[in-house]
Structures are given as structure tokens and as C-alpha cells.
């Protein structure tokens, strides 16, 4: 009868791969060291794009406190800014999944080291490792599930992903501070080109050292380190191919197999991606039928009620803009036509300096039924209450009878099925 391992050495003999060692771990760590800060910064920019300090209805992460120190008013120029930053965030996050899993595989003996705590310093290191591994898996898992529309975690994605990112980054900073000198020495101990030329038959375990990653009883190699790096690189490249097209567009859009909204949505003027259908958010035919009215409220209680026919008789303007969503997908540029938000503000007493506006949808359920757009978003001449797209009336799923389109704003802030606009007094 076999006995459970009693010592740390006994436990490390369970992990027998001859590839494990500080050098391979450091290579994976170096890639993540470059990629994860980019993910973090683009994620923070994504949060800022929602203008959470503008109004409580925009703030999906209340009580953020000092963590919101960097927030700024999201610009409308360049109009493609959110499309790029969120596309990079989602695509890079997906591409790094094989690297993260390979990194975790390479350090798995450390996760089961015995005894778990040997000193106060070791306890702090173990705690940082726990937060690092747990935080990393949590952030990647919530991000990927949100992209795939299979989000299953309890609670809202936005605060969980936001707070999780800060915890993960704090643990990463501690871990890098503790391990960076060792990583540099380890990377210098072996030449990358020499490792890439080493065949499986010539692969040897790394020398034992204080990291405890090298197996005391390694098995015969079945793959070289070159093969391991190639396998991870191939996995990342494959994920890039089946993901990036959702934000790059063009012929690559058809390759976006992992993008629920990235595939070809059909032909015609309204043949471009949508986030949510009218039926999915409870928009009924009578909500957007002949009895639909747009209520516009403004200064000193002024109010006007507009039918779609009257909106069609107002001065119309055009804007060529894409839609970019938090899931990383974006449309090609579409030609929108409608009434400028600034002109609607002028109808209710805000001709000189249009203020921020509360936009409310007639949708009955679902998130982002209302949003607040900032003053400079309202004043941008490309910000429209759109009635048509690409020369045709909006389809019901694209927001008929009227929707907002704002340059540079996240897709969920381009509210569909608009029923009320309230200029000023929205705080």
C-alpha cells in the first residue's frame, strides 16, 4: 500500500516533468510581465470610458474610493479610441490564456510545497502567490466568460472584474519585487537560441536550485523546451486568429469564431452586429409603434414631446461612426443620420451651452436602460439621435424608432429605443 508524501521532497517527486525549472518559468513570466500591464491599463481605460463619475446610473462599481483616482472624462476624439483600447484588452486577454496556463503548470510544485508556511516572510510570499494565482484565474475566467456571454459568477461582472484586477495587480507587484532579480539571473543562465535548437533527445533537466521547481526524480523527456514554447505560442496564435477579427473587421471578421457578435450578421443597411435584440430586453411592438413619443426635457422644466414624423422634419445631419462594445467586438463604420443632440437641447432652452443629458430607453429590463452623456459628448456635432443608418430606417433590433450614437462611447452608451432625453439636472 502506498503512503502519502510526508516531506517536501516527496511531494516534488509527484511532478516529474524534466522541463520544469526556473528558466522555463521565467520565460513564461517575462511574457506575462509585458502583457498583463497592457491588459490592466486598457481595462482601466475601459472603465473610464463609462464616465462613472458623471452619474450614479453610469457607475457600475460604486464605493470604488481611491481606486477611481485616475478617472477622467472620456473624449469623443479620436472616435475610434474605445474600439482600439477595448479590442486590444479583449484580444490580448484571450491570447495570453495559454501563456497563463503554461506558467501555472510550470510552478505547480510550488503551490503544493510542504510545510505550507515556514516563516513570516515565507507566509507573506505564499499569500502573495495565492492572490496572484487566484486573482489571475479569476480575472481571465470572468473576462473570457463575459466575452462569450456565458457569465456565471454571482454578482455583477463590472465590480467583480474591477476589484479583482486591483487585487491581482497588487499581488503581481509584490511577486515581481520578490522574484525579479532571480528571474533576470535565471534568464541569463541559458541562451534562448541554444534552447530552441535543442532536440527532445538532448533535453536535460535544469540543475536543482532553491526554487524547488526542478523534480528530484525527473522522467525521460517526451518534449523539448522548444516544443513546449512552440505549443504555447501556437495556441496563442490560434486564439489570436479566431478572436482579433471581431475588432479588426474586414475579411478577418469571418475568422472570429470565438466572438458571439463577431460573425456576419446578414446583409443590407442594417446588416451589422448587435449586442441585444428588442425581444431580449422586453421591447414590445407597441412600445416602438405609431404611439411612440420622444419626451425631451430641459431648462426650467421646459418639455417637448416629439413624434418620429416630427423628428424626421427637423434638420438632419450625418456621422460615420462604428459601434464598439465591452466584449471586444466592433462594427465597421456605419453612416448614421438623425438630429444632433445639441439641437434637441436647444429645443428645451439650452441653445448656448448644452449640458449633460440623461438618456432613457423604453426597454423593460436588462442593463444600461439609462445612461448619462457628458457635456462635451452632447456638444460634439457627430453626436446624434439617429433615425436612419446607411440610408435606411433603423431596424427594431438596431433601436428603431430612435437611438443615440456618440463618437468614442462604449456600445452600451449608444442607447437604443430612446424614450426620454433630460438635459441638465441629471446628477
How would you summarize this macromolecular structure in one to three sentences?
Pfam families: Oxidored_molyb. This protein is α+β, with helices and mostly antiparallel strands.
Features:
single chain, about 425 residues, 2 domains, 5-stranded mixed sheet, 13 helices, about 10% strand
Describe the structure.
There is one protein chain. The chain is an alpha+beta fold and 427 residues long. The protein has 2 domains: 8-255, no CATH class; 279-423, Alpha-Beta Complex (Sulfite Oxidase, Chain A, domain 2), CATH 3.90.420.10. The chain is built from 13 helices and 10 strands. It has helices spanning 8-12, 22-49, 81-95, 97-106, 108-111, 120-147, 157-189, 192-197, 225-241, 245-248, 308-313, 341-347, 375-379; strands at residues 294-297, 303-306, 317-321, 334-340, 357-361, 370-373, 384-389, 392-393, 403-405, 418-423. The chain has a 5-stranded mixed β-sheet. Strands 3, 4, 7, 8 and 9 form a 5-stranded antiparallel β-sheet that branches. Strand 7 and strand 8 (392-393) form a beta hairpin. It is elongated and about 80 Å long.
Regions with pLDDT < 50 over 5+ consecutive residues?
A: none
Instruction: Give, in order, the helices and strands.
Output: HHHHHHHHHHEEHEEHEEHEEEE
Question: What level of helicity do the residues show?
Answer: 25-40%
Cα(first) to Cα(last) distance is 71 Å
Q: For the residues shown, what is the average pLDDT?
A: 89
Number of strands: 10
How is the biggest beta sheet arranged? 5 strands, mixed
**Outline:** elongated
Amino acid at each position: 500500500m502506498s503512503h502519502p508524501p510526508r516531506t517536501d521532497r516527496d511531494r516534488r517527486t509527484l511532478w516529474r516533468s524534466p522541463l520544469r525549472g526556473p528558466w522555463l518559468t521565467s520565460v513564461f513570466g517575462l511574457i506575462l510581465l509585458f502583457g498583463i500591464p497592457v491588459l490592466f491599463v486598457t481595462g482601466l481605460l475601459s472603465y473610464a470610458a463609462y464616465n462613472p463619475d458623471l452619474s450614479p446610473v453610469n457607475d457600475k462599481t460604486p464605493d470604488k474610493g481611491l481606486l477611481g483616482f485616475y478617472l477622467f472624462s472620456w473624449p469623443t476624439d479620436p472616435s475610434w479610441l474605445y474600439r482600439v483600447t477595448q479590442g486590444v484588452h479583449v484580444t490580448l486577454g484571450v491570447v495570453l490564456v495559454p501563456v497563463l496556463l503554461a506558467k501555472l503548470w510550470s510552478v505547480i510544485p510550488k503551490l503544493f510545497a510542504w510545510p505550507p508556511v515556514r516563516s513570516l516572510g515565507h507566509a507573506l510570499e505564499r499569500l502573495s502567490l495565492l492572490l496572484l494565482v487566484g486573482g489571475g484565474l479569476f480575472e481571465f475566467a470572468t473576462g473570457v466568460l463575459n466575452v462569450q456571454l456565458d457569465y456565471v459568477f454571482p454578482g455583477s461582472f463590472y465590480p467583480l472584474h474591477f476589484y479583482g484586477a486591483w487585487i491581482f495587480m497588487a499581488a503581481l507587484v509584490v511577486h515581481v519585487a520578490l522574484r525579479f532579480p532571480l528571474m533576470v539571473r535565471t534568464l541569463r543562465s541559458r541562451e534562448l537560441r541554444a534552447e530552441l535548437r535543442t532536440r527532445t533527445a538532448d533535453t536535460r533537466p535544469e540543475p536543482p536550485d532553491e526554487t524547488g521547481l526542478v523534480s528530484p526524480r525527473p522522467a525521460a523527456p517526451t518534449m523539448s523546451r522548444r516544443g513546449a514554447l512552440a505549443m504555447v505560442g501556437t495556441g496563442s496564435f490560434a486564439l489570436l486568429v479566431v478572436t482579433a477579427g471581431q475588432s479588426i473587421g474586414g475579411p478577418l471578421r469571418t475568422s472570429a469564431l470565438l466572438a458571439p457578435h463577431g460573425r456576419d450578421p446578414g446583409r443590407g443597411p442594417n446588416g451589422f452586429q448587435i449586442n441585444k435584440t428588442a425581444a431580449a430586453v422586453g421591447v414590445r411592438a407597441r412600445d416602438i409603434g405609431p404611439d411612440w413619443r420622444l419626451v425631451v426635457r430641459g431648462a426650467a422644466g421646459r418639455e417637448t414631446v416629439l413624434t418620429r414624423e416630427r423628428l424626421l422634419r427637423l434638420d438632419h445631419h450625418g456621422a460615420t461612426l462604428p459601434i464598439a462594445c465591452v466584449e471586444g467586438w466592433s462594427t465597421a463604420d456605419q453612416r448614421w443620420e438623425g438630429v444632433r443632440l445639441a439641437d434637441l437641447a436647444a429645443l428645451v432652452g439650452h441653445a448656448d451651452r448644452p449640458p449633460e443629458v440623461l438618456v432613457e430607453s423604453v426597454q423593460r429590463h436588462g442593463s444600461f436602460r439609462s445612461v448619462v452623456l457628458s457635456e462635451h459628448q452632447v456638444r460634439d456635432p457627430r453626436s446624434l439621435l439617429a433615425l436612419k443608418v446607411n440610408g435606411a430606417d433603423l431596424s427594431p433590433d438596431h433601436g428603431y424608432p430612435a437611438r443615440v450614437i456618440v463618437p468614442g462611447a462604449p456600445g452600451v452608451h449608444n442607447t437604443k429605443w430612446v424614450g426620454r432625453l433630460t438635459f441638465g439636472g441629471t446628477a
